[in-house]
Design goal:
heterodimer; A: 413 residues; mainly alpha; 3 domains; 3 strands; 3% strand; B: 998 residues; 53 helices; PCI domain-containing protein (chain B); PCI_dom (chain B); SAC3/GANP/THP3_conserved (chain B); SAC3/GANP/THP3 (chain B)
Chain lengths: 413, 998
């Protein structure tokens, strides 16, 4: 770091302070927001941090601010936060940032117009990002990473401040999305429920009123929640909405949406085109799709094993697992088709023994009882029309549409 | 009473002569008017029964009964107040009730009297003051009150129940005469008091109500206070002056009557009051002497009360006079009755103090006072004398008296040691006498009253080897007493547990005076020495400890009051006091006074509870403290449960027999003490924090030093029943780790049923938790319990263990991780069915874990369940490793039903039951051969099950049982579980348990 004179440091700090107080007094969020973006690594904030390292008595300068009593509570912890962040002490930075954010929220409540919404968004984001950094730091030093939790409760307070009547309510969805991010990260997704409830049931919110980007994010997260709940129809609906409204330039976001949308679609019998999988680099789904297409159970299991960690972490493992039945259906359909080619008159009677053999070719060792059970389940779940004649160990398929398509309905419906 | 004859003897004072005259008539009237038996029996009862109540009070002082210190004072006052009513009621309702009734007849003369009495009774502990206030307001009440005052004053000095009654009677008798006098006084009081009474009442009521638990003590306090405050113009004024006078005497410093009152108040455990008192002139000087810093703080805190006091004193010049008169009479009485007061330790201090110095002080005080209301004084004195007279006469009292006499003498000696050497000589020899007397007093004294302070003094003298030491001892004692009185801890301290000061004057002084770390002082080396050196007698040991705590407390008080005005600090102090009800109450009262006068009652109770609890929570908490606490509770709950008391004492003795363990504990703690913040300070701090946390203050939980609160068990019993803790654990019932290990082995090898094992394991777990032991043993215990719970189908218990195990494994403690990971998976898959839990659990599985047989099995079960593959499920069911079967057991019914539904839909036309038997795991065979062998085991069970679930069964041509799939598909249903229980978990049903586990 180049040498910084005391005078220069003083100038930088007072400059920052005056910009801050001007932004507040002129109610200019566009100016204010970057001043709050601690983790933005903007040059001005970095130089300010250097200045703060040199000039220790910044609080005195803060005290000279006009309206100092209100702003000082925001600015003086904020300055410390900027300083700590620059020094890489994220946990310390988080603590003071939360203080500043609380003071800011206090002020924000008092402002009648939502002019500072942008600045509040910035703070909400910074809080979350910094909390994550702080938790990483804490975890690496063997301490209890709890900052993200703290960020969650702070954001919940922000949400409470916004979720009311009045013009500020448009900002609620953004904060809700930040909350979702926190909760998903913490693995406490059940906490999302209260937020969702207040958004979806409160009459003060007109969903279309919210900014599109927030709506997309919101749909993405709620869609994911529905995937957890194996509520595939709703999940499909939400994720599709997210995908349709996602900015076409945000490839990464689209990919994230597709990561969940594809398994959902698969489980309701809709297979993606190969180009989609390739375009968004979701090749892990490629084999799954192939397995379903081919009725290759081994391939499916292989794919699941191979990408188990990824699927488990993203939470789609259980969904993909359930595709097995579709694969069985495909396999039996294939047998049926082959039989039909050979002898159309007897095609609707599939011997269980043949299925066992087919599975053996796939190197899957299943005895006849198990196969019988699986066929029974397929019939039970409406994947096959027909019945099992237990005595003769034969599946008797319906002559009409023995393998009904799901057509957008989940398995078992 | 027969004591009439004695009365003249007692009436040494000139005034008393008059009183004697009056007294005799009173006595006569008393007997005659009372259904003699009632009053007398009651009085006698007092000796015994009332002694329970009264003794109780003394006990408080003694620390035996914890609360009783004040109680004694109160007892005396209260007993006087039996007339007064509320006080008495509060203390010993049982005893009082009869008395009051008896008194009522007396009151015939004055209707107001009765009312007042009634009011007292009704009021019971708390409200009594208020009612009294009301009475005061009403003119009629005033008169009676005035009479009461007389009685009160009489009673108070004597503090003997019997005497009280007599006094009361006398009062009534005299009351007529005195009424006029009293009236005057009452008028005086009215003027002065009017404003006061209300304030006082409010405060009093609150305090008293709050103290409802330790109603006795509280009431005692309230009485004192009231008296002091003059809220109850009569009673209060009288007793207060009395008390004050006594206190003043005690103080021996240039205490005016006020100061005396002050001290008395303080002594009476009315710390708040004390604080209030500081404002009074007399007290100020006093405090300066004892604790310079403490004084101002008190004033500031309890400004309200002080005002009252001040007002009373200042404005109530007339009232004062009356009081003074009373006091003077009191003093005289004490002198006369010295033996008597001694009996009741409650009086102990005051009386003692008053004994020697009283004469002087009383005289001085009396002079001015008497002048103003000469008439009043005369009657008062008379009554007093009467009371005195009576006291000595009571035969039952006599033995006690003797003992108490000695004690009082000692005390007085101690108190006045510096001033009056004559006493010293007496006191020195007395210790031995006391001990013997104690023995003599035996059950009564012990159970109810052992004068802890006397004992303390005894002890202190006992270790004196020569005269020089004795004199040093005396001077120290004197200092202590002054301090204690100044602090107001004299009565509240647990002298039994107070460490003896070390003989070298410097140390003792230091310990006493030294301000900052009270806790450290407490456990300072001196105490130990004192504690363990002279132990020869177990009792002595006890007392020593109590004494130690006392001194410590004094020091603390000074500090605390001065430095910390917070309630918390006081609470902690009270804690340190070793569960002295009185002490606590005092602190509480202070708090209440400080914070909210009116609202407090309930809160106080809570406070006291919590504080006691926290106390118990102390790791080092000697059984002393706890027992005291429990005692305190017991006393509070059951007003007179001397048996309880005894039992606790026995326990204590036991503890001392086992002293080694304790000592070890102590030694363990010492090193810590030595290093920086002593254990005790730490504990105190932690307690404070905990306290404040409970109190709703915003201190973070993590700021609490839990380590310092951890219990170290001393119990050597291997077997222990599980009892959910409702209070802080008692180290003497907690087993240390070695013992717990044995206990675990015992459970593992036990042939008894699950209920027994569960109980034992829970108690082991509790002991582990309480001692915060988290190691391989903890894991082993939880694993053992989890397995047993699984085998018994006790899923709730299993879940508890499982969640603890997860935590323990996460902390890196070794155990059967795989086995329990498998259980965990299974229980999520089969029971909670929470997808995100399952996902996170599966995510956490390491590659190694996934290779584990049990975990693999669990994962296989998962896929079987998620796809509905019942064949696979029941195969896995048959081949489950470890105890996985038991977890799967709970899912079998559901799986079977689903399977049958599936089969009935997908099979046509029929399915052989034999096949179903195999498929659904009714047979033991793992592989089904599907032969038409109807002899497969389990077919009948399967058939029964199918029928129970609404399946339609037919028999085909071969005589083989078949399930009619089509028919069944619409008739299947899930039957109500026969063993369903209200709370939805059949495994919790005890009957079921017993059948399965025995």
């Amino acid at each position: 770091m180049a040498y910084l004179s005391m005078g220069e440091a003083h100038r930088r700090i007072t400059d920052y302070l005056s910009r801050f107080s001007d932004a507040v007094s002129s109610q200019d969020a566009a100016v204010l927001s970057p001043l709050l973006a601690v983790s933005s690594n903007s040059a001005s904030l970095q130089s300010l941090a250097d200045a703060l390292n040199v000039f220790q008595d910044s609080n005195r300068l803060v005290g000279q601010l006009e309206r100092s009593s209100q702003l000082a509570e925001i600015v003086s912890p904020l300055l410390r936060c900027i300083q700590s962040y620059r020094l890489g002490r994220f946990a310390d930075a988080y603590v003071v940032l939360e203080k500043a954010a609380n003071a800011f929220l206090q002020e924000f409540r008092n402002w009648e117009t939502p002019w500072a919404m942008e600045a509040l968004y910035t703070l909400a984001l910074e809080i979350r990002l910094l909390a994550e950094k702080a938790d990483r730091e804490l975890a690496s030093s063997g301490k209890n990473p709890e900052k993200l939790q703290g960020a969650g409760s702070f954001l919940m307070r922000v949400f409470g401040a916004l979720a009311g009547k009045g013009p500020k309510r448009a900002g609620a969805l953004y904060v809700a999305c930040q909350l979702f991010k926190v909760y998903f990260k913490l693995g406490t997704v059940h906490l999302c429920r209260s937020v969702i409830r207040s958004i979806e049931t409160a009459r003060i919110f007109d969903f279309e009123e919210f900014p599109v980007k927030d709506k997309v994010t919101y749909m993405y997260y709620t869609g994911r929640l529905e995937v957890y709940n194996e509520n595939f129809l709703v999940a499909d609906q939400k994720l599709t909405y997210a995908l349709m409204h996602c900015s076409p330039r945000k490839e990464a976001n689209k990919r994230m949406i597709l990561k969940y949308l594809i398994p959902v679609k698969l489980s309701i019998g809709i297979l993606p085109k190969q180009w989609l999988i390739e375009k968004y680099n979701l090749i892990e789904y490629g084999e799954v799709v192939n397995a379903i297409k081919k009725g290759d159970l081994r391939l499916l299991r292989q794919a699941l094993r191979e990408h188990e960690d990824r699927f488990l972490r993203s939470g789609v493992y259980l969904v993909l697992e359930k595709l097995e039945l579709l694969v069985y259906q495909r396999l039996i359909k294939k047998i049926y088709v082959l039989q039909k080619q050979k002898d159309p008159s007897k095609a609707h009677q599939v011997k269980l023994e043949i299925i066992v053999k087919a599975l053996k070719w796939l190197e899957l060792d299943m005895d006849i009882d198990e196969v019988e059970c699986i066929v029974a389940i397929l019939i039970y779940k409406n994947l096959i029309k027909g019945y099992i004649a237990h005595k003769s160990k034969v599946v008797v398929l319906s002559k009409q549409d023995p393998f009904p398509k799901l057509n957008g309905k989940p398995i078992g419906s | 009473m027969t004591s009439q004859g004695v009365e003249p003897v007692v009436a040494v004072d000139s005034r008393s002569t008059e009183a004697v005259d009056v007294g005799q008539p009173h006595g006569s009237s008393y007997q005659s008017s009372h259904p003699g038996p009632q009053s007398l029996p009651s009085s006698s009862g007092q000796l015994t029964v009332s002694s329970s109540g009264y003794h109780y009070d003394p006990q408080r002082q003694m620390s035996v009964s914890g609360d009783t210190q004040e109680g004694i004072n109160t007892a005396s006052h209260a007993s006087t107040s039996t007339n007064l009513g509320a006080e008495n009621a509060a203390q010993a309702y049982s005893g009082y009730v009869p008395y009051s009734s008896s008194t009522v007849p007396y009151n015939y003369t004055s209707v107001g009297y009765q009312n007042s009495f009634y009011g007292y009774h009704l009021q019971g502990n708390d409200s009594s003051t208020q009612q009294i206030g009301g009475d005061q307001n009403s003119g009629a009440a005033y008169q009676p009150l005035s009479t009461f005052q007389n009685s009160g004053s009489y009673v108070a000095p004597t503090s003997y129940l019997g005497t009280y009654y007599n006094a009361g009677d006398n009062q009534t008798g005299t009351g007529y005469e005195t009424n006029s006098y009293n009236y005057q006084t009452s008028l005086w009081n009215d003027g002065n008091y009017h404003s006061y009474p209300y304030h006082h009442y409010s405060s009093y009521t609150t305090s008293s109500t709050s103290s409802a638990q330790s109603s006795a003590t509280i009431s005692g306090n309230s009485l004192y206070y009231q008296q002091q405050y003059n809220n109850w113009p009569y009673y209060q004024s009288q007793p207060a002056p009395i008390v004050n006078g006594a206190a003043g005497l005690e103080n021996t410093s240039a205490t005016s009557l006020q100061s005396a009152g002050y001290s008395a108040e303080g002594a009476s455990s009315g710390y708040p009051y004390i604080s209030n008192q500081p404002p009074p002139p007399g007290t100020t000087s006093w405090r300066e002497d004892s604790r310079p810093s403490g004084m101002p703080s008190f004033q500031g805190k309890e400004a309200v009360t002080p005002y009252h006091l001040n007002k009373n004193w200042e404005a109530v010049a007339p009232g004062m006079q009356t009081h003074h008169i009373n006091q003077s009479s009191y003093f005289q009485q004490p002198l006369n009755s010295t033996p008597l007061p001694n009996e009741k330790h409650a009086n102990e201090q005051k009386v003692l103090y008053s004994l020697a110095p009283n004469l002087q002080h009383a005289a001085s005080n009396q002079v001015p006072e008497n002048f103003q209301p000469p008439l009043q004084t005369v009657p008062l004195t008379e009554t007093r004398q009467v009371s005195k007279m009576q006291i000595p006469t009571n035969p039952r009292i006599a033995p006690n008296v003797g003992v108490s006499m000695l004690k009082t003498q000692k005390e007085s000696c101690i108190v006045s040691a510096a001033t009056k050497p004559a006493y010293i000589s007496v006191s020195v020899p007395k210790p031995s006498n006391q001990s013997s007397s104690e023995d003599d007093a035996g059950a009564i004294t012990k159970g109810t009253f052992s004068p802890s302070f006397c004992a303390y003094v005894e002890r202190s003298f006992a270790r004196c080897k020569d005269d020089a030491q004795r004199s040093a001892n005396q001077s120290i004692l004197k200092q202590m007493i002054t301090m204690a009185t100044a602090d107001g801890t004299l009565f509240t301290k647990n002298w039994d547990t107070e460490p003896l000061f070390s003989l070298p004057v410097d140390q003792s002084q230091q310990s006493l005076v030294s301000d900052s770390s009270l806790p450290t002082h407490k456990r300072s080396p001196t105490r130990r020495k004192s504690r363990w050196e002279p132990i020869a007698d177990e009792k002595l040991g006890e007392k020593l400890t109590s004494v130690d705590s006392h001194s410590a407390i004094d020091a603390r008080w000074g500090q605390v009051e001065a430095a910390e005005k917070k309630v918390d600090s006081k609470i902690s102090e009270s804690k340190s006091v070793n569960g002295w009800g009185g002490f606590k109450y005092a602190s509480f009262q202070q708090q209440s006074a400080l914070q909210k006068f009116g609202q407090r009652p309930n809160k106080k109770q809570r406070f006291s509870d919590t504080s006691s609890v926290t106390e118990n929570g102390d790791p080092s908490s000697d059984s002393d403290k706890e027992q005291n606490l429990t005692k305190y509770y017991a006393s509070a709950i059951a007003l007179a449960n001397s048996p309880e008391e005894k039992r606790k004492r026995e326990n204590r003795f036991k503890r001392f027999e086992k002293g080694q363990g304790n000592q070890a504990e102590l030694t363990n703690f010492r090193p810590k003490t030595a290093g920086g913040g002593s254990m005790y300070t730490r504990r105190a701090g932690a307690l404070l924090k905990a306290k404040s946390y409970e109190d709703g203050c915003n201190k973070a939980v993590e700021d609490i030093d839990w380590d310092s609160l951890t219990v170290k068990g001393t119990c050597q019993e291997i077997e222990k029943r599980y009892l959910r803790l409702t209070s802080a654990p008692d180290p003497s019932t907690v087993r240390p780790e070695e013992v717990l290990e044995k206990a675990l082995q015992m459970v593992q090898s036990s042939q008894k049923n699950y209920l027994y094992k569960c109980d034992q394991l829970k108690s082991i777990r509790q002991d582990l938790t309480v001692q915060r032991i988290q190691n391989a043993l903890t894991v082993k215990v939880y694993e053992t319990h989890a397995r047993l719970a699984l085998e018994a189908g006790d899923l709730p218990e299993f879940n508890q263990c499982q969640s603890q195990l997860q935590r323990l494994y996460a902390e890196g403690i070794q155990g059967c991780y795989m086995e329990f990971a498998a259980y965990n998976l299974l229980s999520i898959i089969l029971h909670s069915n929470n997808k995100s839990d399952l996902l996170s659990s599966m995510t956490r599985l390491s590659a190694k874990a996934k290779d584990d047989e049990a975990v693999k099995h669990s994962l296989a079960v998962h896929s079987a369940v998620s796809s509905g593959n019942f064949i696979l499920f029941f195969r896995l069911y048959k081949t489950a490793p470890n105890l996985n079967t038991f977890l799967m057991d709970l899912y079998v019914e559901k799986m079977r039903f689903e399977a049958v539904q599936c089969m009935s839909k997908s099979y046509r036309p029929v399915i052989p039951v034999a096949y179903i038997t195999c498929a659904l795991g009714f047979s033991k065979a793992i592989q089904m051969d599907d032969s038409q062998d109807t002899s497969i085991e389990g077919v009948e069970e399967c058939e029964e099950w199918l029928r129970a679930h609404g399946a339609v069964l037919t028999v085909d041509n071969n005589g083989e049982l078949q399930l009619d799939a089509k028919a069944s598909s619409t008739t299947l249903y899930m039957p109500e579980q026969e063993d369903a229980v209200a709370h939805g978990d059949a495994s919790l049903a005890v009957d079921d348990f017993l059948t399965r586990t025995s």
